[in-house]
Amino acid sequence: MSKAIQVYDDGKLVDIPEEEVENITDMMRVFTGIQEVWYVAYKEKISEPNFISGLLRFAISFVKRGLDPNYTDTEPGISDDKSTISAKAEKIWESVGDKIIDMLEDITTSEDFLPTNVPKEIFDEEERHVRNAIAYCLIARAFDIWTPKFWRSDAIAAKIREKDQARVEKDKAKAEKRVPVGS
Question: Domain of life, per the record (predicted)?
């Protein structure tokens, strides 16, 4: 990119390294690709829960492959005894699983967590909201872990889109100047 991208980070305007800009650009491409696949699934009347489950299944396979170098379940729908999580991951879960579950229970039962316009009794009956909230907490935290300096990724993405839009408008203006008058 010709000009550096700057965003506010901790109250200061900082220059974003080219590598980080490239990483965010790649993330945006992946996100756009998933949006396109979602639209195809939507047209095929695949429900959102089924789409998300498929996407999460892919993510689980990807992460398992990183945990266990012998993991072979990379094809959709293929599963065998080797697809169980590695012993290392099981030990990690044994040490932190109860803490995570307790934390999620605290979050999902807190008054701050509940939607302000929904009485608690109704919310308690809606398991789907609790499942969505738990999934959101875990996915958001996974994003934070996987994405260095995640707190500024949205700002960088917005700057990249602004620069792309400015470039498109500049190219369009140049093209319009080349068109002979009266055409």
Answer: Archaea
